[in-house]
């Protein structure tokens, strides 16, 4: 296995192979098989409806792209940062790299210089594939600037519409082409790509996913969702995210011979038009998008959504009241999905009673998934009681990439991953998410590490100390609230200034504080740590619809309301925000 990754113990791996979970089939080879099976059927459709790619064409496209990458020195074991919008090109790039045994490292299009720089560094990537013009952010200009500062320059490939003249070291993805070469000898038990962790640490960790484990995940979830060649999947969430990529999402649909349609934004105008035009049968979204779509449905959108059968909702807690509106108001079957880039997935099932679908996050997708609900000492709690979710199984990692110290804390000695989620199991084994102990804000579906944002806020000269907590929000579930203790004798910086600072430091927009609270001192726990629970309770009380505000100097919004943008393609459900100039 790739250096820096933690393999499953040999006896466990042998068990997964014997049970048929791991079949020794590399993902690049699977595409070849799908092309033989499904030939001239359509595999991918771009949002504009003009780019339509059959299985056979996709197979050829990947071969030529792989040859072009190989000619530019990209080979087996090398890492490539992939940061692309939802387009057919994204899939072609992934499979071209899989065929070479090169490893995509998935970044979100919303990521900026700070995240991109860290990921290039941590992964040791030799190349970065990024979007051209028309995405609302100049990724090319940012890459030019970053290149000047970087000790080790990487090749840059520009997808979509590339500027007419590209700087030295930049290549238009459209020019990457070559006559197919013999595919690399890829071991399916080795790493195929890296997903990003939803970060408890200041900087995201890389999650190695193997060909074997991911192929299994796609197959098993496609089976549960009943996918077949008539399935049409709408990729609404950013494709680099585990949920749309393979739960069953894009890869699960291709495995079944169905069609994948790409949406460039989660806005109902775009998505409903695509559902109608392409007869979409299923999609996966976050609760914030459910809010958006229900609001549009209530207003009457004039689109025929009759083809849509299944709506998977996950990545953040779906409240029962919202869940209950999905069937009646959108005319689709709801499936709750709890998941993590690290592995474990739980789904509610087609034949579950309404109660289970509306109130639980379902049960594991694999009979080999092991779940332990543990107390703070790691001892299992009795069934029905809440504790931390620990898990291991045939598609759950055994260690983050190049992170031995963190791994020692994040995994038990017997290989269970400590998720940081607080859950309970119902009498019939359904998982219910009750909260979390990890220091993460789940904004829409985006995971924001409190530690990361606190570090950047602390860089402001007028900030003595910062603490970031989740603030309840009716549409986003949670938003980012920063508590600030100003430097002695200094005025508290206004929120707009803090947001500008974080942006200038290259942080993705979805991590910027939505609200800033100024206090003289932080409440402390018995162990003299900042009592974040107390801060979270304070902001919850202040933002509760009926209760008056309490302590503190109050928010420093000074007329500046944070925008609603999320990485989920610019969800603006919370709307009504005026954004300060960048
Ligand atoms: C998905 O993956 P990540 O890696 O972005 O985030 C994982 C975390 C979980 O540990 C949990 O804290 C939270 O997101 N989460 C949920 C949830 N699904 C995920 N919290 C409450 N309810 C849910 N249904 O978010 C992800 C990956 C694959 C499929 C679906 C979601």
UniProtKB/TrEMBL annotation:
Domain of life of the organism encoding this protein: Bacteria
Record domain AMP-binding enzyme C-terminal: where: 452-528
Compositional bias per record (Gly residues), positions renumbered to this chain: 561-576
Domain AMP-dependent synthetase/ligase, first and last residues per copy: 33-401
Gene Ontology MF annotations: acid-thiol ligase activity; ATP binding; nucleotidyltransferase activity
InterPro entries recorded: AMP-bd_C, AMP-bd_C_sf, AMP-dep_synth/lig_dom, ATP-dep_AMP-bd_enzyme
Pfam families xref list: AMP-binding, AMP-binding_C
EC number: 2.7.7.58
Keywords, alphabetical: ATP-binding, Ligase, Nucleotide-binding, Nucleotidyltransferase, Transferase
Biased composition, class Low complexity, residue ranges: 541-560
Disordered, as annotated region: 541-582
Main EC class the enzyme belongs to: transferase
Protein name per Swiss-Prot or TrEMBL: PI synthetase 1
